[in-house]
Amino acid sequence: MQILIYILKRILQTIPLLILVSLISFFIIRLSPVDPLAELKLNPSISKETLQKETQRLGLDKPIYVQYVLWAKAFVKGDLGVCSTGERVGAKLKERIPNTLLLTTLVIFLTWIVGVPLGILAAINWKTPLDRMLTVLTSIGMAIPSFFFAILLLIFAVKTGWFPVGGLTSYNFSDMGLAGKIWDLTKHLILPTTVLFTISLAGLQRQMRGNLLDVLDSEYVKFARAKGLSEFKVIYKHALRNAINPLITLLGFEFASLLSGAALTEFVFQYPGLGRLILEAVLKSDINLVMASLMMGAIMLILGNLLADILLIITDPRIRVKT
Amino acid sequence: MKKSLYVALIIFLVVFWLKACVNVDVQEETTLKSAQKNEQKINFPPTAKTKTIDGIDYLQSQAQVGKFGGVLVSSVIGEGPKTFNPFNTKDATSAAMADLMFDGLLTTQPQTGDVITKLAKSFEISPDGKVYTIKLRHGIKWSDEKPITADDVVFTWNKIILAGLGNTSTRDSVIIEGQLPKVEKIDDYTVKFTLIKPFAPFLRILAAPIAPKHVFEPAVKKGAKYFDSFLSTTSKPEDFITSGAFKLKEYVPAQRVIFERNPNYYEINLKNEKLPYLDKIIYLIVGDLNNEILKFEAKELDVISLRGSNVGRYKAQEVKSDFVIYNIGPDTGTMFVAINMNNRKNEKGKFYIAPKKQVWFNDKNFRYAIDWALDRQAMVNNVANGLATPLFTAESLNSIYLNKNLAKGHPKNIQRAKEYLKKSGFYWKNKVLYDKSGNRVEFDLYTNAGNTEREAIGVMVKQDLEDLGMKVNFKPVEFNSLVNKLVNSYDWDMVIMGLTGAPLEPHNGKNVWYSNGSLHLFNQRPSDDKSQRLDWETKLDKIMDEASLKIKFEDRKKLYDQYQQIIYDEKPIIYLYSPVRVVAIRKKFGNIYPSTLSGVAYNLDEIYIK
To answer: Is the pTM of this model over 0.80?
Structure first.
């Protein structure tokens, strides 16, 4: 019951936050000198009448605050409006969200499956060659800029011909059988996943290692060891439980990055996800599309934090007592 | 010991990658020269003719007979098509895809630029130039077996184009003295277009796509708002009833568009077999040029437009590779410096341009000095890697109306430039230029930031003009801000820009040349402005009007020669160069006839795999 009230409170708190986020984003976009019709204006074959019609259709002839109120009204009703090309924003996002989710969930899953054990391994074998080697590898992973790594891998794909150059599916995808489709997807996903995996693995592994080392150094672990508990029990039953808490907060952030975390890599690999769509929308000042994506990002971040907090309440009795 | 092992490992990795990058660029210099040579001679096949078999008026391709089957993979840069409705397109990608599916009555001969028939069997213009009579082909069908008749044509024109649905640019361009053309059905296969005055560009406007009435009529009835989203990218491929060689098969957002052959297409080959040869045309949607290059190298693409430094590299590989490179000559693009000659005040009573600058920019000698000081050949060599041609005319070099006397132009001559300045009383003190009132000559030169080509040109223009003692503040600004300066606030001195020319119809440049045009850059006026026109602006207005009234090519050519002469003499816009188009296409394709007017893979109906 207490938890439910807490959740409700948190959700209510987000409403003013969302209004503020939408206000700031809307006005920043509209006040920037980006003109959605700039390209049309420089096209000698587009007539004045067409330009006027476009201005009206996009609502650019109204004052900014009216534009905002119109947008906000529709947004509350769940209508995301139309893009500057006339397509529905909702439909456009729906096309891309599954692709991005496929990539990001795969990456997050892999990172956690590999990163957490590697972190534990490094902490247990502290200052041994294994730990050092892992440190070097993760340093490299953290140091390489994602776009650079992505380009290197693309060149690798071209030179060897082992992997397709970007994209998500081959052109004859729809004619393939199920096994063929899965194989085709896998081939396309390997490189972008590698990039994102390498980079987020580094952070997670180090976080896990650091946390566990801190905990291993604490009094109660020493006590547990002195009590004569087996090393296995000391680490996995007592130390690990306490070391995992900060990672749950991290998981909350990972949740937020589900939809927006891979934009750069998506762009380099020409991955048909949200990243490319939104980049173009920003460049063309496609206000409804940009606003939808920004609001989506904000909501995901809030949700992620909420989720992490709830998980913490469940896993950590100390927090439960305080609330 | 261990440390040195790590170091060795890292060095090895770095060297490994570097090697992969370095060994490719060796032969570039020598091979680039051969790529810059004049375009190859192409033996075009004769123009397609009408052939009647069993009462059906087929279009018969005169190109070599090929083999059926296969796929051609091409690419589009950007985010892909925005719509497949040919009447709603506002960008080149969408237009190209819609054109593939919906044929027009007429089209352009790729080699000569003449108007030839497509859906129409023949066309006739009355001697007074006001009545266009179009005869349609008998017995040809839409992809759903329904016949293509005069009803479709009349419906398309009266209910879609002239009714102002979708992109109204076609409608706006056929309004003559406030009147729209009259479109009437004479019989099932004859349509008559009547204008109130002769209007030469109308013939090419008849190349506008024709819609199937039975599919479009319900959508048109639902109103303009519905029409805007009709046949959008979210429509099902089955909804497309087309007349063109191909029809939509699948659209995967941000990945590709697939077209399949239209079995009812009305074109046949010399053996009377139904075209097209290819089963599918695939356009991969690639986000940027680099990715396109990589995809071509990985053999995922069959054809690619090459730019700049890539040409040399590809030329070096061509001999050993499975592709062939065509230099198809100057592009329709033009690169130029425009000078703001605006000497009016804005509504607040302030001058758009500082009065001392107005004096310079409205001084013909000043503009001539700039023209003679610019080293176009150096720009071609250094900025465009030699893959461009110096440009001196307002029409692009592949225009059928090009004024050939002017096209040769002149080399840079700094001495001559200085003489022009002296004539107007400019003088130098310590190599710094002052005007006759003692003002230091200093102005801003703009271009859009992020366009590396224009930025490089800007640097070269700045250097050339500084040789004259001028102080040039080169300011690349964000594209949208630049457009705003050009079309709204008019507060710029000089700008480096490029526009796409219309090599077949100079009248399409009317927004630039008419003194009240919306892109009359060098002397832009608000649309309701009635201020004094310069003499030669009035002359230009008259020439553009007159040339649109003449029907005969020779008469129009004379007038358009004059207009180019005026721009050349007055130099409100100083042209720099036209890029040359270079394309690479796999050798396996037959019936490839690259043309400077149409590109390389325009005849998708005739291309086959050897």
So the answer is: yes
Chain B residues touching residue A164 (CB < 8 angstroms): 298, 300
Contacts of B21 in chain A (CB under 8 A): 155
- Residue B500 host element (H or E): strand B494-500
Mean pLDDT rounded to a whole number for chain A: 85
CB B284 within 8 A of CB B300: yes
Query: Tens digits of per-residue pLDDT, B336-383?
Result: 999 999 988 888 888 999 999 999 999 999 999 999 999 999 999 988
Closest-CA residue in chain A for B173?
A: A47
Q: What are B608's strand-pairing partners?
A: B590
With CB atoms and an 8 Å threshold, state whether B291 touches A157.
Answer: no
Do residue A161 and residue B168 have CB atoms under 8 angstroms apart?
Answer: no
Please give the single-letter amino acid code of residue A312.
Answer: L
CA distance B248 to B239: 9
Best residue in B454, B480, B520 to probe A by mutation, most A CBs within 10 Å?
Answer: B480
| Contact yes or no for A168 and B255 at CB 8 A | yes
Sign of CA dihedral B350, B354, B355, B357: negative
Cα torsion for B98, B104, B106, B110, to the nearest 10°?
A: 20
- Length reported for chain A: 323
Whether B286 sits inside 8 A of A270 (CB atoms) is yes
Cα–Cα distance for residue pair A283/A35, rounded to 1 Å: 9
CA dist list (Å): B371 to B112, B178, B392, B487: 32, 40, 10, 24
Preceding amide of B276 cis, omega within 30: yes
Strand partners, B52: B57
Are the C-beta atoms of residues B601 and B303 closer than 8 Å to each other? yes
Question: pLDDT of B136-181, one tens digit each?
Answer: 999 999 999 999 999 999 999 999 999 988 888 888 888 888 899 9
A149: chain B residues, CB-CB within 8 Å: none
Cβ pair B391, B577 in contact under 8 A: yes
Please compute, for residue B114, the number of CA atoms within 13 A of its CA located in the half-sphere on the CB side: 7
Phi, psi of B409 (to 5 degrees): 70, -150
Distance, CA of A248 to chain centre: 16
Nearest CA-CA distance, residue A108 and chain B, Å:
24
Length of chain B: 610
The alpha carbon torsion through B522, B523, B527, B532 (nearest 10 deg) reads -160
Please state the separation of Cα A145 from the chain's center in Å.
Answer: 17
List the single residue in B255, B294, B512 with the smallest CB-CB distance to A169: B255
Is residue A127 less than 8 Å (CB to CB) from chain B? no
Measured between alpha carbons, how far is B374 from B364 in angstroms, rounded to an integer? 16
Is A177 touching B (CB cutoff 8 A)? no
From chain B, the residues in CB contact with A285 under 8 A are 480
Rounded Cα gap, residues B72 and B426, in angstroms = 60
- Distance between B117 CA and the closest CA of chain A, angstroms: 23
Cα–Cα dist B195/B479, whole Å: 40
Record: contact A171-B73, CB cut-off 8 A? yes
Of B169, B172, B479, the CB nearest to A38: B479
Q: Closest to B232 (Cβ–Cβ): which among A38, A87, A154?
A: A87
Buried b (16+ CB within 10 A) or exposed e, B133-172: bbbbbebbbbbeeeebbbbbbbbbbbbbbbebbbbbbbbe
List beta partners, residue A166: none
Determine the Cα–Cα distance for residues B539 and B307; give it in Å rounded to an integer.
39
**Interface check A160 vs B, CB under 8 A:** no
- Non-local (6+) Cβ contacts of A228 within 8 A are none
Residues B110 and B597 sit within 8 Å (Cβ to Cβ)? yes
Which pLDDT tens digit goes with each residue over B183-231?
999 999 999 999 999 999 999 999 999 999 999 999 999 988 889 888 9
Can you tell me whether residue B442 is helix, strand or coil?
Answer: strand
